[in-house]
């Protein structure tokens, strides 16, 4: 008797569309911010500005992964959301513990306080959505 499983639910349907839209908005915001900071005052806080660029890249790749909705897209989105969560928690703690380490804010500074803490909540929602739309045994 062959075991059957239900197919994965698409990550780009229903609430997933809103999640992808938020990732796209944050990708644009973080890319714009990092690009301007790197172009105009990179020498003032290179670590902070490079971290903002990394966050922007993660947001872009996560949005693409969620939008693709296939097996590879899910894996990419899962990796991005996990790295994003570790990044926002790590940078959040470091930016509060040692303010001199980040002379200017990153997207993830203070757990994303400059962006209404959305950078802290976004990877949690992304991971939840990936879990919610996973393949369930029949």
TrEMBL record:
Domain of life: Bacteria
Residue spans crossing the bilayer: 18-36, 48-69, 76-94, 114-131
Sorted UniProt keywords: Membrane, Transmembrane, Transmembrane helix
Protein name as annotated: Integral membrane protein
